[in-house]
Structures are given as structure tokens and as C-alpha cells.
Model the fold of this input.
Amino acid sequence: MTTLREAAAKKGIFMGAAVNTGISRDATYKALAQKQYNLATAENACKWGATHPQQGKFDFSNCDEIRNFTLNEMKGTFRGHNLCWGSYNPGWLKSLSATAKKAALINHIQEMAKHYGSDAFAWDVVNEAVTDNGGAQDPLKNTDWYPDVPDYIDVAFTTARAAFPKNVKLFYNDYNILDKRTKSDRVYKLVKSMIDRKVPIDGVGLQAHIGGGYSDVAGVKVNMERFGALGLDVHITELDISYNSWSQSSETEQAKIYADLLQACLDTPACKSFETWGFTDKYTWKGTNKHPLPFDENFKPKAAVSSMISVLTGSPAPGPSPSPPSPSPTPPGPKRSYDRLTQTCLNAAAITGKLSVGSVSECETLCDKQTGCTSLDTDGSDCYLKSHCEGQTGQCSGWCGYRVKTLIV
Ligand code: XIL
Done:
């Protein structure tokens, strides 16, 4: 059977999952992650508590474990989470003065950038800054950072932009902002004001910890489109769908919600990554008894797996849930031609992880169909689509970069 990863690669979308350290201790867990996903995030291992246990003393070992697994074993794309969050911080941070907190924030981001460079194609720079209280005057939540460091969001993004290579995408990530509602309106205002004030931001992460019965997929699309209209990328970053009681009909409903959200992402050009928070009900922060993820506690695919594969391949889903409509084909445009570069793209910005192709020209055709794609790296068998690529045109064999003619992008 086709895997999620193979089907997603053909669509040029990241299909990811959060993974945990100690993965090598559960061979089944590890093998399934590698087989089914082309993107991974550390569920906890790259947060402050793990990487910065004492002031000024860094421990990258756990975060490295997930990065190495993702890049070397999964041969996938690594997504960084996170550089600044108001919760789950080490005790030493909470007791600092406001001035010292700001200095610690800058130091932390700079050290993470020094160590990880462009290993992660995107980082959640600030996580969960906006309040859940719809009636509050102040849109920002009181946290370990706020109000002590009133401009901490700007500081975090500005520091990250200066410290990370320019192809690394900088994201704001939050929960309860999947569809259009008061909290997502506030996030929209926040990121729009950042753009207006030239604070560097590349995207918004929609966490999507939702429950059974969720039905506002139309609102999700409207929400993603408005962020896209600001020029931002959108990632679904932490999807899970929890149930208080579980039955055959819950499984069928859950499969439809997963499929509908994936379809909404595919239908929205700004949506580039679709990721669940874990992938097996055996290991989930929500608890196995909530059955939130696409694979069950015995690593068996639930109905959600085939419903998502059907969305990706456009073929009817087996079982009772009706098949979602297949995506409308991209209208044929004039075939673009590409310059070959002397080596793979330099300072490139990734749009996709590894796609499988039969030739260089097949990779170019995928690029032609992908919004924003202007270049690629390929050896004629693996293909990576890019939106930015520097380098000289000329002779090359094996792995080479290709760039749409006349564009330096
Ligand atoms: C959660 C992890 O899943 C738990 O294991 C941990 O105890 C707490 O953090 N929003 C986020 C994630 O951005 O980092 C959180 O992850 C879930 C909510």
C-alpha cells in the first residue's frame, strides 16, 4: 500500500509528525516514522528545558538526536520547535530580572542558530503568545516573558533573522487559531503589524489540537488564505483529534476530519506542511484513551491513514467515508525552461522534502506545478523543490541545481 510519505511527496507537501527522544529504544516506532513521514519535529527535545538547563550552559544532545534521526535515518526535513515559549521553561529563567531575561532570550536564539544553522528548514520562533481571553484589552498572554519583556516577540524574531541563515523560515505558532475566530483575528493583527513594522516573519503555525465533532473546515481555509494573502506560509503544526469515547463511528468521523483538513491544506497554496503531534496513540500527550492520532496504540493504521492517502492520491477511500473531491488540476501554462547550475543550489529555500521522480524533466514539471517554485535540486531520481537558489550556471553531472531561466531566485 502507498505510504503517507510517498503520496505526500507526489503532491509536493510535507507530511510530518512530532517524535520523541529514545526512538531507537522502540524499533517499531522508529521504523514507522521513517516509512510514513518526510518531516519531523522534536516533541520536547529542542525546547529550553532540554537545550538550556542552566543559564548559559547548553545541552544539545536530545535535540541533536531528533535532528540526526530526521536527516540521516528518515532522510526527511527537520522542523524546529521552539525558540521562545512562555511555559515549560527551566526554573532559572523565571527568577531573572527583566533585563537579564531579554539578554537570555537573545543569547539562547543565537546559540541555537550557531549550533543548528539551516538544519531545520523552519523554526517556531515564538510559541503561544496570544491570550485565550477574548474580552481582554491586551492581546498578549502573561507568561514567563510577558509583561517583563514587553517587546519579546519582536526581539525574538529580529534576533533569529540575524542569527539563522536566510533560508531558514521563521514562524509564529499557536493553538485555537486553526479557523477564523477571535484568537486567530488577534494573531492575524499581530503578524500583520510585524510585517508593517518590518519585523521579519515568514509564516504562521496552526497547532490544531482539536476534538471529535470538529467541522469548521471552511473557516480553516478562510483563515489560511488570509495569512497567505499577507505573503506568509502556513503550516499545520500539531494536529491531533481527541475523543472522550471511542467507537467505529468515531474512527470514521476522525478519518473524515483528517482528510478534510488535509484537503483544505492542499487547496490553499500558502499551506506547505501538514503535521500531527505524534503519530501513534501509543505515545501521545493527550493519552492513549483519547485515540487522537492516525496510527493506533499497536501501530496499526486507523481509517485516517487511508482517508489521507486518498486525498493525496485522488482515489476513492475504502470504507464508509465518502471520497473527497480530487484537487483541481493546474491549468497548463507555457513550459518554462531551466538553467543547469555547476552544483546544487546555494543558499536555497526548500519548498518540499524528497520527491521521487524518473528524470530531471519530471522534477522540473513538478516545480512548474508548485506555487512559488523557481528552482530545484535533483539527480533525476530524488527531487527537491526550492523557492530560492543561488549559484553559477554551467557543466554539472549527478546532483545538480536547476533554476528557471532568467531568474536569480
Ligand atoms: C507538549 C508535549 O507534547 C508534552 O509532552 C509536554 O509535556 C508539554 O508540551 N503546544 C506546543 C507543544 O507548542 O510544544 C506542546 O507539546 C503541546 C501544546
Residues 320-331 have pLDDT under 50 and may be disordered. Residues 98-116 form the longest helix (19 residues). DSSP finds twelve helices and 15 strands in the chain.
